[in-house]
Here is the input.
Amino acid sequence: MIGFFVMAILWSIIGMVPVDQVIQKVFAEPALNYGPTIIYIVFGSWFGRVLVDSGIAPAISLATNRVGKKRPLLAAILVVLVTALIFISAYGVGSVIAIGVILLPIMLSVGVPREIALSAFSLAIGAPMYLNVVLYNQIKAFFPHSIYGGKYLVFGALAMAVQLIAVLLFLIMNRKKLILLKQMKI
Here is the structure.
């Protein structure tokens, strides 16, 4: 945050922008426009907590764990897809921690190596961010005329699909490590 402040002042000085315009356009208006985004962040994080507290996220993870004992690759794929579905609407560090505390141990318990589990989980969080309304509204500050719908949703869905396919390919390419770890535990 301090970096933004310093850069805003620095670029205003370099650009020789008058002080009254700096105060109005650089500091006052953006702060007022950021209010709705803060509300989205708060409610997005709260929604992630509701998923955990209501039992929805744990129920999903238990079903995944049952399948995973026999087929670790399938379990890892299911965890990736569940994570992506959750983070279409959930947002924030709190949500990531709340869901990660449930799903990462499942991936580890069914035989997914730590580095593969963490990478797949992180990429699965990032994939649906193209469709996440909270993140969209943060970025909208830079593109005020953009609309969440139509062409953007098509782009977001395709971008999410491409990233999820990449994650699935990553898991498939590392399936031998999953099988080896499972055999070592037996």
